[in-house]
Amino acid sequence: MNEPHPTPDEDRRLLSRCFSGDRKASENLVRRFSGLVYKTVQRTLLTKNVPFSKQDMEDLHNTVFLKLLEHECKKLRQYRGKNGCSLASWIRVVTVRTVLNHIRKKGMDAIGWQRKRLALEDISELKSQRAETLAVMERSEQERLLEEGIQHLSARDRLFVKLHFEKAYSVEEIAETMRISTQNLYTIKHRVIQRIKNYVEKAGY
Q1: Which residue, 109, 93, 183, is CA-closest to 152?
Q2: 134-163 pLDDT, tens per residue?
Q3: Helix (H, G, I), strand (E, B), or coil: what is residue 109?
Q4: Are 14 and 69 in contact (CB under 8 A)?
Q5: Disulfide check for 22: which of 17, 102, 130, 192 has CB 3.0–4.6 Å away?
Q6: Residue 48 neighbours by CB under 8 Å, 6+ apart
């Protein structure tokens, strides 16, 4: 896959649409820079002589896009385009920093995912499937357990949670964006829901 070379105007238009919550723009961002992120992840790991698997590359790839899209594109909003820096160059810098952070923390707590707060109402399927048990929990305890359950997911699964439950992408849209078959993504969805349910149940609820 060739590295994209968008013009500065295309960069600004894409970012503007992402900031306004345009779902198609987020999909385009992932498609446009997916190859660049994969290559940068691989090159950085090789440069640091760190052994890695295909799954490691996929996890780090997904972590980068999770960082770019979460919290209303907070990380994307930090891009300023100064001194001729293109969006591609800046995403490359974010990717390198993500990989280096992974290397530093490897062996301590894997990739060390930061916690992500998802309101209970954004996870309607989890709520409906376990309404009878969640009903007896305090709101703060519900959110805490859901946060911790999501924290234990892989980068790919966390990206799916964000796109599907928070941004309301359909499974078909996410499958196309993440380059995964729809059937496999439905399996991932079922597994994600089950893992979070199991985590809540193991906590005694």
Answers
A1: 109
A2: 344 345 566 677 777 787 788 888 888 888
A3: strand
A4: no
A5: 17
A6: 99, 100, 103
Which residue has 């591609």 as its token pair? 88
CA distance 124 to 120: 7
Task: Give CA–CA dist 175/178, Å, rounded.
Answer: 5
Torsion of CA 157, 158, 164, 165, to 10 degrees: 130
Q: How far apart are CA 42 and CA 38, in angstroms?
A: 6
Please name the residue that has the structure tokens 């779902």. Answer: 23
Whole-structure pTM value: 0.54
Asked if residue 186 lies in contact with residue 158, where contact means CB atoms within 8 angstroms, the answer is: no
Q: Name the residue among 149, 138, 148 with its Cα closest to residue 194.
A: 149
Place of tokens 């952070």: 101
